[in-house]
Amino acid sequence: MPNLHQIKSEQTRERLMDAALEVMQAKGLASLSMHEVARIAGMTTGAVQHHFPSKAALMLQIIERLVQQIDTDDSFWPAPHWPLQRRADHFVQQAWRRLYGQPRFAVAWEAYLAVRADAAMVAHIQAARAPINDKLLLRMLRSFPEWAGGPAAEARFQLVLSCLRGLGVLAPFSSPAAIEQQLQQLSVLLQSFSSEVTP
């Protein structure tokens, strides 16, 4: 059971993440900085950096919190008894609207790329992202049981996520119509994976 200090620390972290989202929504992606987050949260920059040593670490936690919410939200995941096309369409649209198409996703990757020369931070991000991907893969296999015994299930899942990440990064330079067409094709690709592994 967490003690009072741990509870207060977690509450502070939640407050800082909410402040970061407020900055993004009010002023746009370029305005997100540790100083601005501190100002909105009513804290010092040093206090913010005590909880999040960099913008990349802050964004990683925001994405992790979002994924945790999705992991426990059954409305995000298609039911395994639905027809395959409905499941694929549902997953692609939900993943885009609630995760990869969100402005905070592009901010997170901007922050990740900014620290790619920092080996220690890269290792930290890789370690933190691993359980996030594991959670998503487990839920994906429940929604698409055809994959469970098939070859390269994880690689295929990662390919789908890579497509969504690419769309998320390039979204500011794409039209909504072009993105929607690509999401439809991604659903077709997802369905083809299942047909390949079904006996």
Automatic annotation (TrEMBL):
UniProt keyword list: DNA-binding, Transcription, Transcription regulation
The keyword Cytoplasm is annotated on this UniProt entry: no
Lineage: Bacteria, Pseudomonadati, Pseudomonadota, Betaproteobacteria, Burkholderiales
Domain HTH tetR-type as annotated: residue spans: 10-70
Descriptive protein name: TetR/AcrR family transcriptional regulator
Record organism: Comamonas squillarum
DNA-binding region per Swiss-Prot/TrEMBL record: 33-52
Domain of life: Bacteria
